[in-house]
Write a structure and sequence with these properties.
The protein has eleven helices and seven strands. It is α+β, with helices and mostly antiparallel strands. The chain is elongated.
């Protein structure tokens, strides 16, 4: 390595950009504004006012949707006019009471003072050109027709002036279109794929849920409804797999479906075998959300129903034992049988070897069923 290269490398290693000693870390919350107090000591960053009415005016002028104001949310001084900023006795710059920011990028405000170009700085002759003759209706040729005057709707900056210019015909057309869209939206809500849509049809309830009727389904829901508030939901983050003790509310619910509609989705998936994409289109949610709901409810019902003791006591079995079991089978407590349910072939070769059935010649889930005599 030469001496020049050594000097360059040592200079790069020794020189670093330093922050201002007294600089804060404030940023402007206005869109399209990248002002920061870290490297700009001339700007002043003002907090939002405590008055709710004045704060609402600030938020309206800034034009940010779903915006939450915090104690660290600030607006830089470049968005205020000069007469709105005054100096105190201690030479501190503060806002005048009732000031509202009004200088933004979208109303063609720029803090950069550009230098006039060469064409503006050069002197030119001021001799006027001869005026062109103004054409009249008599001077126009017969084959040329007069152009039809079409009114133009100029774009209006609604934040700069309180005066609005509204075209009545366009306004009435937009109102009619809005009413039509509202009726269409209401009809879509009425035709949404949910449990309430099929509550009056026992055939549909049996098809989609395998419950005998809507009354049986609601009886089952009344038993598990209290436990759904402590449900452990499956999410993308591994840390969220841990049980949470936070009570679920409409504000903290991860999906827009109600818990009973999530149960209806899970039962429909088991009963009809619909794909997750099809269920996503029916319930108007994403396919990934459908997958998480299915896994969540499978784990929830397995844990909840698996903790219930369903075995009859030996005394109850002997008291209700049929006469066909008298004699050699009088001590029978349970009758066992096995069954297989066909399942999807897993991608793992190890899992394929565990779930493959030579009897069915396909991958199946093996289950042992017990029934009291």
């Amino acid at each position: 390595m030469s001496a020049v290269q050594k000097n360059k490398s040592s200079f790069r290693n020794s020189f670093k950009f330093m922050r201002r000693a007294s600089g804060s870390n404030d940023h402007c919350c206005v869109p399209q504004c990248s002002a920061s107090s870290r490297y700009n000591s001339e700007l002043i960053f003002h907090k939002f006012p405590k008055d709710s009415t004045l704060r609402a005016q600030w938020v309206h002028e800034i034009r940010r949707s779903a915006f939450t104001v915090t104690p660290h949310t600030k607006v830089c001084s470049r968005h205020f006019e000069s007469h709105q900023i005054m100096k105190t006795d201690t030479n501190r710059r503060v806002l005048v009471s009732g000031s509202v920011p009004s200088l933004f990028e979208w109303n063609n405000y720029s803090t950069v003072q550009t230098r006039p170009g060469v064409w503006e700085r050069c002197t030119r002759s001021t001799s006027p050109l001869p005026p062109e003759p103004v054409p009249t209706d008599e001077n126009l040729p017969e084959e040329l027709e007069q152009p039809v005057t079409v009114p133009m709707v100029v774009e209006h900056d609604y934040g700069a002036s309180p005066t609005l210019c509204v075209n009545r015909e366009v306004y009435e057309d937009m109102v009619r279109e809005l009413e039509a869209l509202r009726e269409q939206l209401q009809s879509c809500h009425l035709q949404s794929f949910g449990l309430q849509r099929f509550s009056s049809s026992p055939e549909d309830i049996r098809y989609y849920t395998r419950f005998p009727s809507y009354r049986h389904l609601m009886a089952f829901w009344d038993l598990i409804e209290a436990a759904t508030t402590k449900m452990v939901r499956v999410t993308r983050a591994r840390k969220n797999y841990v049980a949470s003790t936070i009570t679920e509310s409409p504000l903290t619910r991860p999906t827009k479906l109600l818990p009973i509609d999530e149960l209806f989705l899970f039962l429909t998936y088991l009963s009809t075998g619909c794909t997750q994409r099809e269920l996503g289109h029916r319930f108007n949610i994403h396919r990934t959300t459908v997958s998480r709901i299915i896994v969540t409810w499978a784990n929830f019902l397995y844990s909840l129903l698996g903790s219930i003791c369903i075995w009859m006591s030996p005394t109850a079995v002997k008291a209700n034992l049929p006469q066909a079991f008298d004699g050699n089978y009088s001590d029978t407590n349970i009758i066992l049988d096995c069954t297989e349910l066909r399942c999807q072939t897993p991608s793992s070769l190890l899992l394929q070897s565990e779930v493959f059935s030579t009897y069915k010649s396909h991958c199946t889930f093996k289950a042992m069923v017990g029934m009291s005599p």
